[in-house]
Amino acid sequence: MVEATELTVQGQSLQSLYTQYAKDTFLVNRRYQRKLVWAVDEKERLIDSIIAQLPIPLILLAEHQEDRSSSFEIIDGLQRLNAIFAFIENEFSYEGAYFDLESLADTKYLRDSNLLVQKTPTLPRSTCLAIVNYQLPISIYRSATESSVDEVFRRINSSGRKLSLQEIRQAGVTSSLANLVRRLSAGVRGDATLTDILPLKEMPKISITSRNLPYGIADDSIFWVKNGILDKDSVRESRDEELVLDLLLDILIRPLPVTGSVYRNAAYGRDVSSATSLPAVESRIKSVGIETISNRFVETLDIIRKVVDLSGSSLATWMITQSNPRGIPRYFHALFIALHDIQFQKNMVVDDFPGLTDALHGFWDRELTITGGGGNWSGKRKEGLNSSVIAQLEKFFKRKDDAVSVRKQELSLQFEMEMNMALTESAMFELKQGFTRMDATGALDETSFAKVLRTASAMANRKPGVTGYIFFGVADQAADAQRIEQLYGISGHKLNQFIVTGTQHEMDLLDRSVDDHYRWLVQQIRNSDLEQDFANSLAESLQPFHYRDYLLWSMNPVAMDHPTSFGGDFYYRRGNSTEIAKGPEVVEIFKRFS
């Protein structure tokens, strides 16, 4: 039973709602909310209804109060609200004409501040005024608990076909499995975020779009679509998350379980007698460890991604001659589990990537076959197929001799997942192109490194338990990447809005090995103005790694149970800048840890 709460229903003008939106009042909880997936024609139909003064469905919000201010979590109406605000901000037109930014005080201010740009032609002022005065029915759910919000969302979406089966399974579920599915799926798609709660304003940055827009994720660039594993509609319906779920169940449960809807439902608590029941799955996750499972998934997918890079083709066309417009999820599934088992059951690493790539060319055109269709895929059939695939591919692997071979593996997906988070959480990310000055001397920039350590202390003052991300070898400004190319002839790799430049050229210039530089950095951190416990923790997190043959370095400042000082002062992050705390700001930092 859902606990009783106060529910009010009222009409609010779009003008009033946009003012709240501009102040980041509306929040999205990614624990149950799906992606922004409406196409432009769907958004235009909504604007058409508003202009025609037709009724549109009610928006349901849950009110949260903190420090005398209110925020509103969107339970139902995410796609509609995003479409309305996107239209007002000129992201798309209606019948070829754009909203007139002069029609609304907030948009006029943003335009005058160069934060919005007026596109032309514009709709008549009278039409724009009618739009912003439209009364949208808003239902506000007050005194709502997390569990009651989750239950309301499930009830709203369990009838009809508003959400896919997998979206309904995932909605509001906080089991270890559900969190793994959510996190890994977002990482592969490219829409991972540091926290579950985001301002609605940030969502377009990680939305799936079918147009060439300056924000969001182009649907044809998503790994699943680009490689012909799933089609665009399947990703929009969260079939990618269903596939990740199936892969995780096969990683966790042996002998291999049946793949099908009933068994997926069981993993979310619908049937305790199944081999894939929630208790059985959660027990296995606890036994193996969440991070271990996540890392194994990422390492396996990275092997496939490297094969794709070497092949110069999509995975589907490389492995299968016959065209498969609806995708090849079962073929991918079978390959993935075989590669996973070679690595982690047989304790092997890839020794011959070119050979593995050649072996997978036309792989499924041979005697190996997989039953098509969307019905159950029996565990017995999967076991036999898995043994056959392993037998053909394990010759391209070798035994893991020691832990070093594991550490040297390129975890490119993990890095990309973390860089995607930087799009919406700039305060907890710091990117530096390297350790040296970008001038003719190429000398070590110890002052700049000290500033990075100061920034690490500011990240740790966010709140207890948070983790920050600091990367060296990544430029956040195109001018920096261009300067590195001029000085060293290094061409960067574009990743979202950032450019990976690496630091190997600096090691060569300084005549240092990676180990030498590692020891120097650790000494700099431990002898810095940071508190000793925090400095030791930060030094232990320092890690060199490779991404697409670029040498990068990472550090992860983790907040302690009390504020962290640097040189006797306390710092905090404002956006992507570091500020010294004074007076009330120091008090506010200490309140976060009390």
Description:
The chain is an alpha+beta fold and 594 residues long. The chain has a six-stranded mixed sheet with strand order 1-5-3-4-2-6. Strands 11-12-17-16 form a four-stranded mixed sheet, with helices on both faces. A hairpin with a 2-residue loop joins β18 and β19 (569-574). α2 (40-51) packs across α3, α11 (239-252) packs parallel to α16 (329-344) and α14 crosses α17 (353-359). The chain is globular. It starts with 5 loop residues before the first strand and ends with a helix.
Class computed from helices, strands and strand pairing: alpha+beta
What is the molecular shape?
A: globular
Q: Write down how many β-strands occur, each being a DSSP E stretch of 2 or more residues.
A: 20
Strand content: 5-15%
Biggest sheet: strands, sense, closure?
A: 6 strands, mixed
What number is the mean pLDDT? 89
Weakly predicted, low-confidence segments:
403-408
Q: State the separation between the terminal residues, measured CA to CA.
A: 35 Å
Name the strands of the widest sheet in spatial order.
Answer: 1-5-3-4-2-6
Radius of gyration: 26 Å
Helical fraction: 40-55%
* Number of helices, where a helix is a run of at least 4 consecutive DSSP H or I residues: 26
Topology readout:
Layout: E1 6-13, H1 14-22, E2 26-29, H2 40-51, E3 59-66, E4 69-76, H3 78-88, H4 105-112, H5 125-132, E5 135-142, H6 146-158, H7 165-170, H8 176-189, E6 197-199, E7 208-209, E8 217-218, H9 223-226, H10 232-236, H11 239-252, H12 261-267, H13 278-288, H14 290-311, H15 315-319, H16 329-344, E9 348-350, H17 353-359, H18 379-393, E10 397-399, H19 403-407, H20 412-421, E11 429-432, H21 446-460, E12 469-472, E13 474-475, H22 478-488, E14 493-495, E15 498-500, H23 504-510, H24 514-526, H25 532-541, E16 543-547, E17 550-555, E18 565-566, E19 569-574, E20 577-580, H26 584-592
Parallel strand pairs: 2-4, 3-5, 7-8, 11-12
Antiparallel strand pairs: 1-5, 2-6, 3-4, 9-10, 12-17, 13-15, 14-15, 16-17, 18-19, 19-20
